[in-house]
Structure prediction request, 275 residues.
Amino acid sequence: MDQYYREIAARMNSTDDDDSIDRLKEIAGAHVVGFIKWRASQNRSHRAPQKQPSEIITFLQRLDCRQDLQLSKLSFACLFARSIDIPLVKDDHFRYVDLPPLDDEGDSSGSAGCSQSSELHLTLSALLPSRPSTKEITAKPTLPQYIFQLGRLHVEEVRASSTAIPLEPTYFVVVVDVTTPSKPLWLIYDYHPENNLGERSLVKLEEQEPVFPNVGRPFDAAQILPRIQDWNDKLTVEAVESEILRTRRIVEPRLTSATSAKVAGVLDAGWRGQR
Prediction:
């Protein structure tokens, strides 16, 4: 490439006639072709090693949400977990997993309805109710004020046969409450999921089959894990259902952009005295 630049520089000092311009095109064309062939011969990979689900979970558990760098690292970690599912909980009948959005080269059917964009996937968002909660005003825990999305909840029926059963997407998105060091996990119903064409349409909550068999009454927001540190192999479907029954509500949640100054203040208050 050095020779290319030397010849270009020499031509820039010559007369601006047609022969010089044609020769300049020849020089540029020859070296561009050469560069492309050289680049192809390098056989370099642009992707980091695939992250394992356990690595993602461990990182989430250690995550200090006050650090922008940490959030960027989490986004990077999830970028390479898009072709694998992150197990949430399972029993003898069903397996529940969190499936992050795929990148532009993959199938986006598993993407979080609130955003298919990998750039927005872990952007902090403000979570607001559109109606008063169906529970008492003093009900605990309160709806998270700021969250980031982990991905859409999928369900797989467990069978004894070896027949592969595809994961079925639900309209719930798994989110993390970033305002407290315990980083609770919540399920938030996406009333207007985005399809593969980028279009959104209303999906009525009352028309959906229960995602958890022992949770009958519909809900659009519920805490499923009070402490993200408890996200491990010992977590049971029964415990998740019990937490949903305790915290479920209908508030018609919606996401809005989070203002940096407001987020910083809330995080500082919520994480005060930690680390």
Remarks:
- DSSP finds six helices and eight strands in the chain.
- The chain has a mean pLDDT of 74.
